[in-house]
Amino acid sequence: MNIYEVIKMKCESCGMPLEKADDYDSRDLNNKYCKYCTDENGNLKSKEKVREGMMQLRMKVTGKLRAQVEKEIDEYMKKMPAWK
Hints:
Blueprint: H1 3-7, H2 47-62, H3 66-78
Helix pairs in contact: 2-3
């Protein structure tokens, strides 16, 4: 068992589980953010870019329209440590 099986870390930007090295950008296990929320240098992307990515994924998965997803994502992001 490794530390990630015990702690169950999540991205502080989007909430994605960080379960393996590939989940982190550049495999930096000290980063609080996943590979989807960081740029090529491991820095957190802008809130607008993260929001757009989350909305695109949510629309694809649920089949909901953008207007429906915007409200859901905005409420969710307010609860994430990176965006408080």
